[in-house]
From TrEMBL:
Pathway in which the depicted protein is active: Amino-acid biosynthesis; L-threonine biosynthesis; L-threonine from L-aspartate: step 5/5
This protein's UniProt keywords: Amino-acid biosynthesis, Lyase, Pyridoxal phosphate, Threonine biosynthesis
Enzyme superclass (EC): lyase
Role summary: Catalyzes the gamma-elimination of phosphate from L-phosphohomoserine and the beta-addition of water to produce L-threonine.
Keyword Lyase found: yes
EC number: 4.2.3.1
Source lineage: Archaea, Thermoproteota, Thermoprotei, Sulfolobales, Sulfolobaceae
Pfam family, one: PALP
Swiss-Prot/TrEMBL catalytic activity: O-phospho-L-homoserine + H2O = L-threonine + phosphate
Protein name, per record: Threonine synthase
Biological processes, Gene Ontology terms: isoleucine biosynthetic process; L-serine catabolic process; L-threonine catabolic process; threonine biosynthetic process
Length: 394
């Protein structure tokens, strides 16, 4: 384990979450056994890759997360959607949560805490329930999509609401963790979570080999790093000979990392009041920005931003041409891909995977905003509508 701020190094220590010297973010480096081979693996989902997941797990808390569909576009091109909405609570957060909650249980914690824009909350609440842990969620008041809030309530979490943005909740959780060692934090500054999320890369590689590009919606920026880490580990072992270019996609009103990459700056300028309809990436101060910028640079990738109109259009297009429903933050990857094609730096013949991070049902309000024909009818004469349409189109 190594601190990305001060360089402090340690043997693997499952209790270690932030740097004991400076409080910075830790990286976990994993060396896969040289015998690692996809053909020897058993089971499906995150724990199929347990040889690659750092740490010891006497007990694993799992709800069969991972193993999500990689759906090829109907155009027949080598373009795929990794549908993370198919996870048990409807987002990729479950991949990280199974590892983090299992770690917490193995280390003897009884209380867990997370700040969240919603999906971490829903996932943490479900896994805590399964593990029998007490959970406190810190949510931005009135800023959480209704599906996610409803899940957190259903799974029985205690919900602490704060005025303002997610970033305020995140700061409060970091402070609590540092002052009160008995609570286990489940946010993505916890590097153990990313050990689970990296299995997205393992699944993609096992199914279709190495893509040219992977498009990832970026909020707190843990996931893009986790996916890059997965590909890097496979390359270091010689299982693959290159890694995909990682493309981070942010929402325009919350795009500190994309702007730093575009303007060639060393560090992002944080956004005080992030705004976007894509609430899961409505984050102004991404805690994992250093890790994300490393992943983007080392993969020779890039980052871009898309506006809310482009996000909503992408959500509709994905639903109405591919039959896939994803929440607004999730389709930032698709909106970003469309923009990259338009700008000409990605070709339609490139092999591309877009990560669709969460399910459309998470945010019903966003779906209902789409236009649809809804007609009050006489139930005895439905044929009038259809005949009228046929006439109009002939
Ligand atoms: C958490 C989340 C993201 C952002 O992931 P980060 O690791 O914070 O960058 C994107 N989309 C959805 C649906 C999420 O739940
Ligand atoms: Zn440090």
């Amino acid at each position: 384990m190594r601190c990305i701020e001060c360089g402090f190094q340690s043997e693997l220590d499952q209790k270690m979450i932030t740097c004991p010297r400076c409080g910075g973010i830790m990286e976990i480096s994993v060396k896969l056994p040289s015998s690692f081979s996809f053909s020897n693996l058993r089971g499906r989902g995150v724990w199929r890759y347990s040889q690659a997941i750092a740490g010891n797990y006497k007990k694993i808390i799992s709800i069969n997360e991972g193993g999500t569909p990689l759906i090829r576009t109907r155009t027949g091109k080598e373009v795929y959607f990794k549908f993370e909405g198919a996870n048990p609570t409807g987002s990729f957060k479950d991949r990280g949560m199974t590892v983090a909650i299992s770690s917490a249980v193995n280390e003897g914690y009884k209380i867990v805490v997370a700040a969240s824009t919603g999906n971490t909350a829903a996932s943490a609440a479900a896994y805590s329930a399964r593990a029998g842990l007490r959970i406190y969620l810190v949510l931005p008041k009135d800023k959480v999509a209704i599906g996610k809030l409803a899940q957190s309530i259903l799974y029985g979490a205690t919900i602490l609401e704060v005025e303002g943005s997610f970033d305020i909740g995140m700061k409060a959780v970091i402070k609590l963790y540092k002052e009160m060692g008995l609570v286990y934090p489940l946010n993505s500054f916890n590097p153990w979570r990313l050990e689970g999320q990296k299995t997205i890369a393992y699944e993609i590689t096992e199914e279709i080999g190495v893509p040219d590009y992977v498009f990832v919606p970026v909020g707190n920026a843990g996931n893009i790093y986790a996916i890059w880490k997965g590909f890097s580990e496979l390359m270091n072992l010689g299982i693959i000979d290159r890694i995909p270019r990682m493309v981070g996609v942010q929402a325009e009103g919350a795009s500190p990392i994309a702007k730093a990459i575009i303007n060639n700056q060393e560090a992002p300028q944080f956004v005080e009041n992030p705004e976007t309809i894509a609430t899961a990436i409505r984050i102004g101060k991404p805690v994992n920005w250093k890790k994300a910028m490393k992943a983007i640079k080392e993969s020779q990738g890039t980052a871009i931003y898309v506006n809310d109109a482009e996000i909503m259009e992408a959500q509709r297009e994905l639903a109405r041409t591919e039959g896939i429903g994803a929440e607004p933050a999730s389709v930032a990857s698709f909106a970003g891909y469309k923009k990259a094609i338009e700008q000409g730096w990605v070709d339609r013949d490139n092999k591309v995977v877009m990560i669709l991070t969460g399910h459309s049902l998470k945010d019903p309000d966003s779906m209902i905003r789409s236009s649809a024909r809804r007609i009050v009818v006489n139930p005895d004469h439905l044929e009038n509508i259809i005949l009228g349409d046929l006439n109009a189109s002939s």
